[in-house]
Write a structure and sequence with these properties.
209 residues; 1 helix
Length: 209
């Protein structure tokens, strides 16, 4: 994306890519609106380094080995009205990590995750770590909203898991100052967790019948 100040991607269909379905790096303002992604070879949508805002709205993502939507190091994040199915299927990942989620967000100042439908994920439906990974002399005021999402059939492949998994620790970054902000989880509908034992899919017959 080079030196662009804003990128908007809308109204396209992407199928069977060799890597991520859509990938945007280091653009201040990013919008991905009303796109369809089928069987990307890694993640569905990746946005990294949106210094001002990252919005992903109204997308349809199906069949990704990694995360359905992955946003990292982006200040203001809005993910709303997306439909994600069969994310975190593992098959094409180079190495095992934590990238098996419907939505994964790593680093932000404020985030809204609203009205998404997430069905069948290898790990969490929604996973986020709160502190943006940049040095900053100013305190980071955090605002988190996770509202009215529907998450079903999650933790299919791994344990230590949850439908919504939020990690607020500043691992390895004692220099960051954090001011307590608002965190609202409300109206989310969660069904059909799949426990795993000894690293193997739990309830295998039901999960694959």
């Amino acid at each position: 994306a080079g030196s662009a100040l804003k990128v908007r991607i809308s109204g396209i269909q992407v199928q069977r890519t060799a890597g991520d379905g859509i990938r945007v790096l280091n653009v201040p303002h990013v919008e991905v609106i009303d796109v369809g992604i089928l069987q990307a070879a890694l993640h569905g949508i990746v946005v990294h380094g949106a210094a001002e805002s990252a919005t992903v709205r109204g997308t349809r993502i199906n069949g990704t080995p990694g995360n359905g939507i992955q946003v990292s190091a982006s200040a203001s994040v809005v993910l709303e009205d997306n439909r994600i199915a069969r994310a975190g299927q593992i098959a094409n990942q180079e190495r095992l990590g934590m990238d098996f989620n419907g939505i994964r967000i790593g680093g932000f100042r404020e985030v809204s995750v609203l009205r998404n439908e997430i069905d069948t994920t290898g790990f969490a439906g929604i996973m986020m770590s709160e502190v943006i990974p940049i040095s900053d002399d100013q305190p980071q005021a955090l605002a988190v909203q996770v509202r009215d999402n529907t998450i079903s059939t999650f933790c299919v492949h791994f344990n230590d898991c949850g439908a919504i998994y939020i990690n607020g620790r500043r691992r390895g970054r004692p220099d960051l100052k954090v001011v307590e902000g608002t965190r609202v989880l409300q109206g989310n509908r969660i069904t059909d967790p799949r426990a795993t034992l000894n690293g193997l899919p739990g309830n295998t017959q039901a999960a694959h019948s």
